[in-house]
């Protein structure tokens, strides 16, 4: 949920080359004829504009277009499609694997940063948000109208939609759950509206898998009244041994199944301790209920742990909570540049029906405390509370959206950067992170129904890991095949494979800022 304060393994995976007959001159002329500004390899600022957020990747697109309207997005998609290029949307550009640049060389990038309109409708509390907006700017615009939306904590991640877990999520849902309708540019350039009333199959699909289906240019969301007070809390232990740090996880699982309110959002954060076999641990989050009830709610969990090294419990405004969660990055993203990183990350969604076993927790904590101490990476692990009693995320019917994991207790993010956040990423850093995940999974029974989170997209993961539910559901919508056909040119027998593969790219507009549309003609 958080990007750390922040390496160049050249990832020149040039796989593409859909067709030899690409006429870039023609592309440039067509874009210019539609008034779409764009940069190409020969442009002076091309290098800067084509840098990936994760500097582990270096991806060279054919060009980057900066449309200012839905009509220009449509024209740009059609122009790229006519040249048989992969066309990809970049929203915030935070895809962990550079999908906003196409993931591999040779794509046409549709950068949405010039599409930043936001309107809030007082009558029904909906807001229409163009997908060039970053989360911080969305927060400010909604807050000015007394409204708020559930989303992650990084202010620079752009404009929402397709995942969107944050501390208010147990109370308000995922960002994708708030979407009422969306404007989508399809692979053939057609502009479609998707909602519960029109193009319902597309509406189902984009809430969880939008990049497979088109470029979402705006979403209409249901906002919530900004809570009058949010209690931001953090409890830190500088040096916990393996037994005690294991108890912090096990007891959080137990606590989560007690009658905790939906208004409590929390995560455990692990980092290097002062010596091998010890860890630094922090429990932090936001409580969106009355300040006076906070202490009693968290007491049953805190009393299972030693006295913290330090703690902070601060009630304040909703905007103050968003500012604190941003960890030093400005909420107004016009005031400072984004900060890149060089990293490798993985994730696990633990099932509520089969929480982590004591053996898995101990192996995992032991691994972090020992291998973590000797690792040359700068790493952290977040154990985020998604489910548990009263969380509304898991009450949304599994068939309602393409998001496949409505049975999650914890979302665990394993994140390791190069020591100075610059390239190169150390080669042993991959095995280090893989080992964290293995320490858990290898200590669970075969067939443990865990998953992975698409926002924390991982280029080493095989397709099925994100959950196959969407594939199954997708096939029960016969008309959806038409959409897919239009976008992916997949044949029905290929559908399952195609959707699974594209599905990895899901949530990217919302949370990691890129949508990817494959145009195979
Ligand atoms: C590419 O397009 C330009 C402009 O339309 C045209 O002049 C040129 O002949 C084309 N090149 C090829 C190889 O078709
Ligand atoms: C909310 O109200 C606006 C008009 O103010 C209307 O255009 C829109 O369709 C409404 N949205 C929903 C989901 O009812
Ligand atoms: C964000 O900062 C910019 C540049 O300082 C300023 O022009 C703009 O008004 C600010 N936006 C908000 C919502 O405060
Ligand atoms: C574009 O694709 C959609 C979805 O298949 C289809 O409904 C629409 O008619 C197509 N538009 C054109 C101009 O071919």
Automatic annotation (TrEMBL):
Leader sequence residues: 1-21
GO molecular function: FAD binding; oxidoreductase activity
One Pfam entry name: FAD_binding_4
Transmembrane spans: none
Named cofactor requirement(s): FAD
Gene3D superfamilies associated with the record: 3.30.465.10, 3.40.462.20, Uridine Diphospho-n-acetylenolpyruvylglucosamine Reductase, domain 2
InterPro entries membership: FAD-bd_PCMH, FAD-bd_PCMH-like_sf, FAD-bd_PCMH_sub1, FAD-bd_PCMH_sub2, FAD-linked_Oxidoreductase, Oxid_FAD_bind_N
Keywords, sorted A to Z: FAD, Flavoprotein, Oxidoreductase, Signal
Entry's family note: Belongs to the oxygen-dependent FAD-linked oxidoreductase family.
Protein name in UniProt: Glucooligosaccharide oxidase
Species assigned in the record: Mycena pura
